[in-house]
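As a warm-up, study this chain.
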Amino acid sequence: MIDSGLRDRAGRHVTLRPVDDDNWRAVADVAPRDDQRAWVPALAARYLVLTMRSDVWISLAVYADETVVGHVMWGVDDDGSRWIGGMVIDAAEQDRGVGRAAVRILADRLATQDGGGVVRLSYHPDNTPAARLYTSLGFTPTGALEDDELVAELRP
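Now compare it with the structure written out below.
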């Protein structure tokens, strides 16, 4: 479990935990709001399949107290940079600070893991809520594109 003591706006304790036999179904069922489906899949199950079929990505369940409320994944690129990807917070759980806490927790962990380094993520240019969130957390757009998404990075 990755726990930095962060809480959402409702005071719930936000943690990141491995996807396992006990929580994978709840993670797979995480669904964004309908208006977000242009940028993320309809269900987090797609990301779970991706991490099962890839040696790069690792899925984590996002918890608020003891309830699965989202999914996020991370990986390490060939250049040693760490990436955050595949974040989906369930529609019913959005606008409570859970996504903000999840990104902070994971970015802090990745920035200090194995000597630290740059943490990157990408988002669709039209996804202005994501751009505002990541910028407010210190991520800076690099000008690079990855699969039609803008790349932003957080330097230690």
